Amino acid sequence: MDQLPVFLNLKGMSVLLVGDGEAAEAKRRLIEAAGGVITSDPDAARIAFIAADAGPADVAVLHAQGLLVNVVDRPDLCDFTVPAIIDRSPVIVAIGTGGASATLAKALRERLEAMLPAALGDLARSIRAARARVTDARPTPSGRRRFWDRLLASGGALDPLRDVPDPDARIDAALALSDTRDAERHEIVLASDDPDDLTLRQLRLLSRADTIVHGNDVPTTILDRSRRDAVRLTEDIIGDRPGLTIILRRAS
Fold first, then answer.
1. What is the pTM of this model?
2. DSSP character for 246?
3. What residues pair up with 84 in beta bridges, in sequence order?
4. How far is the C-alpha of 191 from the C-alpha of 188, rounded, in Å?
5. Are 88 and 116 in contact (CB under 8 A)?
6. SS3 call for 137
7. What is the mean pLDDT of residues 62-90?
């Protein structure tokens, strides 16, 4: 991972904008859309966008004042870069290339735009509104994870890549069903050490797993395709664990 993707809350934050012309105007629209307050006073700002000719010395001055800096078309001078954005607020999809190619990020954004329903934001708001109800009905973290995994899976009641009519009713209907607490276990035999050789089913299992059991010879690149908060164990005998356990083995 060349850069850490983060989502920054700009609401009410003073943002330094330097420059004029089309590039500066584009940054202005972006900052204001996110609720930032544009200022020309570096002492009042916490981050800075430079849409003008700038060099290392200019950036160093702003660094000395404690600002993180973005310089348009100069990734080598940037503390952060601005991704291509798909806005389905509150769902935001950001595509970055570490400054390698804005055109590549744009091409990916255009493809993904066509895949994501316009009502995806409404679905997210319904999920947020239901969190307290789901916590009451599924008090354990693994129970809540299984609940949402089932609903949001491909073809599920809340499949995020499909138009979902009346998501509130669908959530309530799912809550009325009993929770399955039995341990579930699957084994994945790796065809190779290349994570691109994982099948779609194997990727789905890894993304849902609560526990990953693996040998020391399983590559980290494979393990990194699982959920970041999944428990990782190297023991062969683990007993029954709640939720979904995946056993990863290399082909003999």
1. 0.70
2. E
3. 95
4. 9
5. yes
6. helix
7. 95
